[in-house]
Write a structure and sequence with these properties.
- Keywords: Membrane, Transmembrane, Transmembrane helix.
- The chain contains 20 helices and two strands.
- It has about 525 residues and is mainly α.
- A two-stranded antiparallel sheet has the order 1-2.
- Helix 7 packs antiparallel against helix 8 (about 140-170).
């Protein structure tokens, strides 16, 4: 069964070292070439998502859809794109579990991972080229449907490659996240540049999206070639000794899952809440539409700053190391600050016996998360009760909503990145013989993250549609749906409406007639 891999081994050995040594300088030192490659991959893989978020308005104009359909087109595209992303993660997880980490192929796992990632990046580039051809060569119902399905199909490549890159280059996850973070700022600068340089008389919506897709294709080609160099000239070759090593000192699957479980809960909670409230509720449900776009640009820049700050915290703040009691990042509280941290109360309960719960880093995360939940609660009350005490202060007041939304995005993203960067260092144990179990847990973590992300998007879309329908009914003279309900009853009413409405939204995204879907 291992014949193809043995054949690959013979090729590497037969060619000798001369062809391989020419690329060794690229991987010498601190691995800067690989870091740049992973950064560009993060920037590349998120481009289709930006084409959905920042390009839906341009696509609707190109294909002759009215302005009121932009939000619906964006919503259904985003949900199905996220679902395809989830399917990609599932595929990667299954391959990691049953093939790469299976007993029969374990020592050839790097061959499988490398080949798998290169094929996916090639498919990603081909889909972007097809997207450009469909967008630029015609209009009509068939064209917009093809554009829709091509765009959402890129989500599969995104999810599958995302998990593979994080597993093959786990120490560079921060650079991968930085690539994600700067994507919004790059797209904003690209759109503004096209607007500035476009000659008068040219169609702005067409050329803006055309240049955006072309930019994504170029990025995909460059990053794909660089990753191919990393895989072939650094990862591939004779099977690595650690794949068949009997040495201990690594966590096995049980240990890795157990010690990473707290971060699963923390990270999934962050993802679920962040994308439930932003940007659907704030800013689009509590600000005038003309005030929303500028705030979105500001938040994109904040996300870039967060990505860069996470690199600094990982490098100098040791947030990727194991969390321990009495230590806040690189600072030993007991010795450097002269403060004795009393963790006896925490240690007395078995629930808090983990090294995570007793760490000041966990308390820092709680502070960020508490601030985030407080702002999110204010936004919910403002949206539901614009004439209430809180609503009168904040509703359509950008002087308050701008900094509060910026704080929401900042604390939410900091919380997520804090967890992401610490997961690898906190998976501890001694029963395993290699890092394969930690890599598999990282894949499972991303899979659960996407499931939470998909669920929160579907629920928020169903909830917001039901809320807007209820608000429209009030404007027509009908009573508000929760007028005579208490707080608890109202809460569960909107949860039920979110589930029912979200299921209808999810079923509706599998459409073969996009124009009819968004026009109804």
């Amino acid at each position: 069964m291992g014949a193809p891999f043995e054949f690959a081994d013979s090729i590497f050995k037969g060619l000798g070292g001369e062809w391989h040594t020419k690329f060794k300088p690229l991987f010498a030192g601190d691995g800067m070439f690989e870091r740049i490659t992973v950064f560009l991959l993060g920037l590349t893989l998120l481009q289709p998502v930006m084409l959905t978020l920042a390009g839906s308005a341009f696509a609707c104009r190109r294909f002759g859809l009215p302005p009121e359909t932009i939000g619906i087109f964006l919503g259904v595209t985003y949900i199905l794109q996220t679902f395809c992303n989830f399917l990609g993660w599932v595929t990667t997880t299954l391959i990691s579990k049953y093939i790469i980490n299976g007993d029969e192929y374990r020592k050839y796992g790097i061959y499988i991972q490398g080949s798998y990632s290169m094929v996916l990046l090639f498919a990603h580039c081909m889909l972007l080229i097809r997207l450009l051809i469909v967008f630029s060569t015609g209009i009509g119902d068939k064209r917009i449907t093809t554009y829709y399905w091509t765009l959402v199909s890129t989500g599969f490549c995104f999810g599958a490659v995302n998990g593979t890159i994080r597993t093959m280059s786990p120490m560079n996850n921060t650079f991968f996240n930085i690539g994600f973070s700067v994507t919004g700022t790059c797209v904003t600068c690209l759109h503004l540049t096209v607007k500035k340089l476009l000659p008068k008389g040219r169609e702005l919506s067409y050329w803006t999206l055309y240049c955006h897709i072309l930019f994504a294709i170029i990025l995909s080609l460059v990053s794909g070639i660089m990753w191919t160099i990393v895989v072939i000239f650094d990862r591939l070759g004779p099977p690595k000794p650690e794949y068949s090593s009997d040495a201990s000192g690594y966590p096995d699957q049980s240990e890795a899952l157990t010690t990473a479980a707290p971060f699963f809960i923390m990270l999934w909670g962050c993802w679920g809440f962040v994308f439930f409230f932003y940007p659907g509720i704030s800013p689009f449900s509590i600000l005038r539409f003309c005030d929303c776009q500028a705030l979105m640009y500001i938040c994109m820049c904040i996300e870039t700053c967060i990505g860069l700050s996470m690199y600094a915290l990982k490098t100098y703040g040791q947030i990727g190391d194991k969390w321990t009691a009495g230590k806040l990042g690189p600072i030993d509280i007991n010795t450097q600050l002269g403060v004795q941290l009393d963790t006896n109360v925490l240690k007395s309960n078995s629930l808090f016996s983990s090294h995570v719960w007793t760490s000041p880093n966990f308390l820092l995360w709680c502070c960020f998360y508490a601030g985030y939940i407080t702002i999110a609660t204010i936004f919910i009350l403002t949206m539901h009760y614009p004439d209430g005490v809180i609503g009168k202060i904040f509703f359509q007041r950008k002087f308050f909503i701008y900094p509060m939304t910026m704080f929401l995005v900042f604390t939410g993203n900091i919380s997520m990145n804090l967890c992401w960067n610490a997961v690898w260092g906190n998976m501890v144990g001694e029963k395993g013989s290699n890092n394969a179990s930690r890599g598999l847990v990282m894949t499972i973590l991303g899979l659960g993250e996407l499931l939470i992300l998909l669920s929160s998007r579907i629920l928020s879309e169903g909830y917001l549609r039901s809320f807007r329908a209820g608000k429209a009914a009030v404007e027509s003279g009908l009573p508000y749906p929760t007028d005579r309900m208490g707080f608890v009853s109202s809460f569960f009413y909107w949860v039920q409406r979110g589930v029912v409405g979200g299921s209808k939204v999810f079923v509706g995204v599998f459409t073969t007639d996009v124009r009819t879907k968004v026009m109804v």
